């Protein structure tokens, strides 16, 4: 699977206030600019005409903001429209609910996944145009674009010479569903994580939901490149259900977003913090590490679903027992 990670650094001209979730603000401004430069129907009265547009499958705006099954280069079995992940996600490089003063800098990280790597130049121009026009009414100047991970300079306003970003590539091997070795996993939820379960939103960080989300997203991103995964999804899911929560330190975070379609503000929430899991985790290590790129859960386009693996520890039988019981209870049982 291919991906590109762009760090966009801006310098403000005017004071700007960012709400709790800055990603939604920036994503909306960049989407408006991207649609203006890439959409052949932008003067159409129906501003959400992507589904009926014959050019949608090759349009930068539709690819990143209105991702649909037509953007796949191979078929996926049993994929429903509401499960389709977008091929772009964005992170803010700063906390929300703050004022950025004139001449201060702020940054956003834009990640293009799968087939969306082909529209990187459009994203760069759209981000530049959005800042010049004004984000929340405050103008800014795009100063530099760097690779999020390597720090390599892609573009700067000093030389105005765009070097196309290097495309990264990684492949996730199928989780070993025969590996039942007990391990302890410490997982960090960096931005709010929540899931949809039977049509309802749940913030319970169940391990099987995390694995299910990661598998669906990776399956879709690979399909956008024309590759179909032949994994044993049922067996992998059953193994994931054996992993249990042994401890957690989390809190609920509530954001909100404005929906142009519904013309109202919509609450968005999830949990952040650290959760410890215990069980047959070892076979999922590679997929979990890839989760830093893939993300998991819902509202990922709004900056949610950031996770990283803090630790995976192999357990002895005694360690496995102690992980479920406080030390004082363990000593009483043993005595």
Structural write-up:
- The protein has helices at residues 22-38, 60-65, 120-133, 207-223, 233-240, 285-294, 317-324, 327-334; strands at 2-12, 16-18, 88-92, 98-100, 105-113, 140-147, 153-156, 168-169, 183-193, 195-197, 200-202, 244-259, 264-279, 307-314.
- It is an alpha+beta fold and 335 residues long.
- Strands 1, 3, 5, 6, 7 and 8 form a six-stranded antiparallel β-sheet that branches. Strands 12-13-9-14 form a four-stranded antiparallel β-sheet.
- A hairpin with a 4-residue loop joins strand 12 and strand 13 (264-279).
Question: Quick gist of this model?
Answer:
With 335 residues, the protein is α+β, with helices and mostly antiparallel strands.
SSE arrangement:
Elements: E1 2-12, E2 16-18, H1 22-38, H2 60-65, E3 88-92, E4 98-100, E5 105-113, H3 120-133, E6 140-147, E7 153-156, E8 168-169, E9 183-193, E10 195-197, E11 200-202, H4 207-223, H5 233-240, E12 244-259, E13 264-279, H6 285-294, E14 307-314, H7 317-324, H8 327-334
Antiparallel strand pairs: 1-5, 1-6, 1-8, 2-4, 3-5, 6-7, 9-13, 9-14, 10-11, 12-13
Helix pairs in contact: 1-3, 4-5, 4-6
């Amino acid at each position: 699977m291919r991906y590109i990670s762009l760090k966009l650094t801006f310098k403000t001209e005017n004071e700007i206030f960012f709400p709790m979730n800055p990603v939604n603000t920036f994503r909306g401004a960049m989407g408006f600019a991207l649609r203006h430069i890439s959409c052949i129907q932008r003067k159409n009265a129906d501003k959400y005409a992507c589904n009926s547009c014959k050019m949608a499958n090759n349009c930068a705006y539709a690819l990143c903001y209105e991702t649909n099954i037509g953007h796949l280069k191979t078929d996926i079995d049993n994929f429903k429209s509401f499960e389709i992940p977008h091929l772009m996600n964005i992170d803010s490089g700063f906390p929300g609910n703050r004022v950025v003063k004139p001449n201060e800098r702020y940054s956003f990280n834009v990640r293009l996944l799968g087939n969306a790597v082909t529209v990187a130049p459009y994203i760069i121009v759209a981000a530049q145009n959005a800042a010049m026009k004004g984000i929340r009414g405050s103008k800014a100047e795009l100063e530099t674009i760097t690779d999020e991970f390597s720090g390599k300079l892609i573009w700067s306003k000093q030389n105005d010479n765009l070097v196309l970003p290097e495309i990264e590539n990684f492949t996730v091997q199928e989780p070993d569903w025969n590996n039942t070795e007990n391990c302890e996993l410490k997982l960090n939820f960096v931005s709010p994580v929540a899931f949809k379960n039977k049509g309802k939103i749940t913030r319970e960080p169940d391990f099987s939901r995390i694995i299910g989300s990661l598998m669906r997203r990776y399956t879709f991103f690979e399909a956008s490149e024309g590759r179909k995964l032949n994994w044993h999804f049922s067996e992998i899911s059953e193994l994931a259900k054996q992993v249990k929560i042994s401890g957690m330190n989390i809190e609920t975070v509530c954001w909100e977003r404005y929906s142009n379609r519904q013309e109202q503000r919509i609450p968005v929430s999830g949990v952040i913090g650290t959760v410890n899991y215990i069980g047959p985790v070892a076979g999922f290590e590679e997929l979990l590490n890839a989760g830093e790129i893939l993300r998991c859960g819902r509202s990922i386009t709004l900056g949610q679903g950031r996770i990283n693996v803090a630790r995976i520890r192999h357990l002895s039988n005694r360690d496995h027992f102690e992980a479920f019981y406080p030390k004082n209870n363990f000593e009483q049982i043993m005595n």
